[in-house]
Amino acid sequence: NGSVNIPPYDLVLCTNTLEHVSDIGTAVANLERLVKPAGYLIVTVPHDLPPHLHPIDNNFRPTSQELEQLFPRFKVLASQTFSVRHYKPEFMDNPTPKISGVLLYLG
Q: Tens of pLDDT along 39-53?
């Protein structure tokens, strides 16, 4: 909520978190605040992982372009949708052993 005074960092990593927050706008604002003016932000989110109950899931499954639009302050250095093969097909009740996500590298 911005009430804690945390100094900014050169690099902030936010991986598979935005799909679990109740207010994405506040989360994005906090991430931006944590990055130094010349710093970097790396964000990953799932792309086609089915929603699940635990932990809380807000069903946020953006494309790479949708994720880029959340961070207009930053220059996009890399943006890619990727796939990961799981060796346990029952992972999070997902019947398919392949899950894709979005990687965004900002500077």
A: 999 998 887 777 777
Distances (CA, A) of 94 to 59, 71, 98: 15, 30, 9
- Quick check: 54 and 106 in contact, CB under 8 A? no
From CA 31, how far away is CA 35, in angstroms rounded?
7
Cα 90 to Cα 37, 75, 81, 94, 97, distances in angstroms:
42, 38, 22, 5, 8
Length of the chain: 107
- Residue 73: both structure tokens together: 């302050």
Decide: pTM greater than 0.85.
no
